[in-house]
Specification:
308 residues; alpha/beta; Rossmann fold; Alpha-Beta Plaits; 2 domains; four-stranded antiparallel sheet
């Protein structure tokens, strides 16, 4: 039996179609990343799965339970961490933990082994009010509270948004440890680099699921040669490259520009020579491997029907 099964779920908010019919499945004990920008439909889908919102069409099953018919049972077997800090800020760390354990009819002591690696990092501050914690510590407390009843499925809505890079790295290591305990994890994120840390990813944009694959398969399906271009003035370089090809073939990536070499129109040397003839100097052009963000942009382009 699959851990999560989603079939044809859609949702509208008046004139806005937040989710087009979405279908995919999660294996037991996998980390699945729902990847997309703000407004893509990630939170809407998560709220449906966590029984906080009714779909307009379609259905989902979590551990065999129907998301609307069996909503009470689902709430007992999932751990949910919303995008915004949703614990009680005036309660202490310890009081929040005890409260959420009591809600699910258990105790902190009964399931301490599951949260020990996470909670031990904030336990020295257990008397501190939750609202006074740093972003990283709030994140760990929220995750501890979501796990204290030993859920079978953990659902996280953009858990690393607004958290520093070190805390993000620690958080993903925690998720890997939880996976080893057999917990199925569905995590949404706008950060493309986090996609590579998942077993599989679903790329979503404007409510439409564009791809469900392993991160490596997404990259392998890119299908074009990619150049990394840099020089003294990347803005001028980008404007020139846009004139050579479709604007969507040229994107800024950090200190470099990624240029899609469609149909093998150029080699690094021929492009370098062409730019040199136009007065560009000290230009570096290298063939590079695409990343998830390159692939996401290309999928958006293809789904919009603008591919040449």
């Amino acid at each position: 039996m699959k851990s999560i099964v989603i079939k044809g779920i859609s949702k509208n908010f008046q004139e806005v179609q937040a989710l087009q019919p979405v279908s995919f499945e999660l294996e037991k004990g996998e980390i699945f990343g729902l990847i997309g920008p703000d407004g893509a439909g990630k939170t809407t889908l998560i709220r449906i799965l966590t029984t906080l919102l009714l779909p307009d069409a379609g259905a989902a099953w979590l551990e065999g339970f129907h998301c609307t018919d069996d909503y009470r049972k689902i709430r007992n077997i999932i751990g949910y961490m919303p995008g915004k800090f949703a614990l009680y800020p005036d309660l202490s760390v310890e009081e929040n933990m005890k409260f959420f354990a009591t809600v699910f009819g258990t105790t902190v002591e009964a399931n301490y082994d599951l949260v020990q690696l996470i909670y031990s990092q904030i336990e020295p501050f257990k008397k501190r009010r939750a609202g006074a914690l740093s972003g990283g510590m709030k994140q760990k407390l929220a995750l501890s509270c979501a796990l204290i009843h030993r859920p079978k499925v953990l659902i996280l809505d953009e858990p690393t948004t607004g958290v520093d890079a070190v805390s993000r790295k620690e958080f993903w290591q925690i998720l890997k440890n939880l996976k080893e305990k057999g917990i199925t994890i569905l995590v949404s994120t706008p950060y493309m680099d986090e996609a590579e840390l998942c077993d599989r990813v679903g790329l979503i944009q404007k409510g439409k699921l564009m791809s469900v694959e392993t991160p490596q398969t997404v990259v392998n399906n890119f299908g074009h040669e990619l150049f990394s271009v840099s020089g003294p003035d990347n803005y001028q370089i980008m404007e020139y490259l846009k004139k050579l090809t479709n604007q969507e073939d040229v994107q800024i990536f950090g200190q470099n520009i990624h240029f899609i070499n469609r149909d093998g129109a150029f080699t690094p040397n021929s492009l370098h020579q062409k730019m040199k003839e136009k007065g560009f100097e000290n230009i570096d052009i290298q063939t590079t491997e695409p990343n998830i963000e390159d692939c996401f942009i290309e999928l958006m382009r293809n789904k919009n029907g603008s591919n040449n």
